[in-house]
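Inverse folding, one chain.
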C-alpha cells in the first residue's frame, strides 16, 4: 500500500466518521494516527512488508539533503493527530469545520498525490 492510497483512506475514513457522528471512533482514529506518528509503525509500511518481505525499497527513504532526521510522512501524522485533538476534542464548538477541512485535504492529497503539508515539511528539512 502506498502513502498516497493511505492518505486517501485516512481522509475518507475521517469524513465518514464525522458525517455519521461516531465520536468514539474518531477518538480511536486520533489514537491510531498518533501511534503511527510516534512509533513510525506505519500501516502502509507494515502491509508492504507483509506482502513483499522485509527488503522493500519503501523502507529506505533518506535523502542526504534532509536537515532533520525525521520522516515528513511521520510528522504529517503527528500534526494531523494534534490538530484533531485541539479542534475535535478541546475546541469542538468553535472550530467544528477544521476536522472536516483536514479530512477533505487528506482525501484530495490521496487522489492527487500532492500534499501541501508534506511538501512544506520536506522544504523545512524533514526527510
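Residues assigned per position:
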Amino acid at each position: 500500500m502506498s502513502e498516497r492510497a493511505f492518505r486517501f483512506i485516512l481522509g475518507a475514513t475521517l469524513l465518514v466518521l464525522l458525517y455519521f457522528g461516531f465520536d468514539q471512533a474518531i477518538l480511536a482514529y486520533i489514537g491510531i494516527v498518533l501511534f503511527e506518528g510516534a512509533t513510525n509503525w506505519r500501516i502502509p509500511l507494515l502491509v508492504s512488508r507483509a506482502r513483499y518481505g522485509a527488503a522493500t525499497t519503501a523502507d529506505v527513504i533518506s535523502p542526504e539533503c534532509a536537515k532533520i532526521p525525521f520522516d515528513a510522512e511521520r510528522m504529517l501524522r503527528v500534526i494531523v493527530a494534534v490538530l484533531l485533538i485541539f479542534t475535535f476534542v478541546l475546541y469542538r464548538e468553535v472550530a467544528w469545520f477544521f476536522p472536516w477541512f483536514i479530512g477533505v485535504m487528506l482525501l484530495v492529497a490521496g487522489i492527487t498525490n500532492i500534499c501541501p503539508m508534506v511538501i512544506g515539511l520536506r522544504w523545512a528539512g524533514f526527510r
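Residues 3-124 form one domain. The two ends are 20 Å apart (CA to CA).
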